[in-house]
What we know:
The protein has helices at about 5-20, 25-60, 65-85, 110-140, 150-165, 165-170, 185-195, 195-220. By secondary structure, it is an all-alpha fold. The longest helix has about 35 residues, at about 25-60. The model has no long low-confidence stretch (mean pLDDT about 85).
Amino acid sequence: MSTFVPRWIAGVTGFVLLLAWFVPAITGWQDTALRWFNILAAVAFVLGGLNIVITNVAGVRAREPGWGYKAVTLVAFVVTLACGLGKLGVRPSTTFPDAAYSGAYLQDGSPLWWQFEYVLTPLISTMFSLLAFFVASAAFRAFRAKGVDSVVLLGTALVVMAGQSVLGGWLTGWLPEDGPLSVLRLEKLREAVLTVPMAGGMRAITIGVALGVVATSLKVLLGIDRSAYGGR
């Protein structure tokens, strides 16, 4: 009984959003539901921020393992929040020059822009650079030619990677750019692989994912799957 009301709210709202794409008469209901969603999302952001603060403060006070990282997280969170909400260093826009907070919050030269440009972007690049080594090691283990499928996978991966790098141009650069032999150039083989078999495979995966999303969404909206509401 405790999940009865949430299940009905989620089901009715979900079907309204779905049917509004096919029934123009209830488009206004869709707009109302989306406004409710935006309000709830804003509340969720606030609760999420409070949860971050409470969890990390408790970890720092208890000196849990890795509490230094929690302290850095707290400082970064507070500084970023203050720079964003206070629009520190943001100049008024030309449209409303008399309004101090009329400028864009991510204006060039502002402290928040500086954090995105010189802190967040390098950290993201570093993370993906480290992930590249793990991907390479995993690919080395997965691409062992133990059968026909492995040989095809290994050959395709080598063609795509070599065609993307300078090595591909160096190995097949002597082949003519036009004519029958031009299809043997690694950059053109890579383009053919990405355009034909990979595109077909991605379409099949996308269709399968879409069908899975539809099935899961219907189970939630009809109340068959109650895990989203805390049930079994």
